[in-house]
Amino acid sequence: xxxxxxxxxxxxxxxxxxxxxxxxxxNVSEVWNLLYAKYDLSTLxxxxxxxxxxxxxxxxxxxxxxxxxxxxxxxxxx
Amino acid sequence: xxxxxxxxxxxxxxxxxxxxxxxxxxNVSEVWNLLYAKYDLSTLxxxxxxxxxxxxxxxxxxxxxxxxxxxxxxxxxx
Amino acid sequence: xxxxxxxxPITPDFIATSIAKHQSKYEIGAHNIFLGQVRADEVRNxxxxxIDFTCYEKMANEVxxxxxxxxxxxxxxxxxxxxxxxxxxxxxxxxxxVFVSAKHSKDVYEATEYLVNAVKKKAPIFGxxxxxxxxxxxKVNKTW
Amino acid sequence: xxxxxxxxPITPDFIATSIAKHQSKYEIGAHNIFLGQVRADEVRNxxxxxIDFTCYEKMANEVxxxxxxxxxxxxxxxxxxxxxxxxxxxxxxxxxxVFVSAKHSKDVYEATEYLVNAVKKKAPIFGxxxxxxxxxxxKVNKTW
Lengths: 78, 78, 144, 144
Hints:
heterotetramer, A: alpha+beta, Ubiquitin-like (UB roll), 2 helices, 23% helix, globular, C: alpha+beta, 29% helix
């Protein structure tokens, strides 16, 4: 199971802070498209972090079980 | 009488913080030369302020009685 | 890993204590402090009353570690500290505190500006602006 | 004329109180603070133990008034404060406090640097560095 975490306005839209999904032979881009379709994320201008590092939404890096993928809305610190 | 004020290392050399001198038809440059000769100010790299405004050591501005002339060593605030 | 996130506002007392801790470091000649204070912005006649901050702490700590390392490589600093609030911070309260110390004053200014901008741009911190009328909107940094 | 000169060191408490006073100004989003701390410099094996500051207060107040006016004309600031110690300030103690506040962070950095450098260069403040062995030397700012 991979952990998917949601923050800020993304969590508001998905109505959860995290969930676990079974991953098989999927890359970042495919997981992103899966979640994008499941929730309507089109207006959110989100980014993806794989194991705490930002990666491209279209990245072909493989997502493994035990990985943590986070969907991050615009940063607003400071 | 004009007031002459000394600060920092200048006051240390002149051994006083202020004195009053009778001024007659003297400009800044002449007063400076008078004090320069009276005390040995040669090594002090001082500046002169007339009524709280910096003026050139060679200034020909007239010094009047009731004026305040200050001999200022290098600034060291901050 | 240094503790960056503070629950609730960063108080003047907390800042004073941080300053006092540096008074035994006799090689320091200059400190520069940046404080971010929650502003009562107006958005279409609604006034901000507070910002509720959350963060992705695990990622934020790594990002902040890198930012800190880069600052030490780039600028001649004695020490630096970064603190950011989590939770609801009211207008007028301080939510962000960057503290840079160096031997000489010339080294502190640019380092502070670098740190403030790097945190705004790179740290996964999220801010929900709560308006007086109980509606809200999500804050977006210009650097996004 | 604002009161700039403070007898003795500028304490962390004094700084905290200044910060607290700004928390009711809801238009402020960013503060930048510069603190000058007395450093234990070594000069030919003699170590600085304290600096004894004096000033030509009448002239300093006029100079600082001009510096403050120029800063308000040049930068988009909400408020600014300058404090400088007079008397003997020990190593580790703060002798100089510049406090700049603005709506946005981008406006504070350069203003702080301008103010610090203008005070160092233009204000008639004199510093006698007292060494641990009870000798002394007069401090000279590089800008002289």
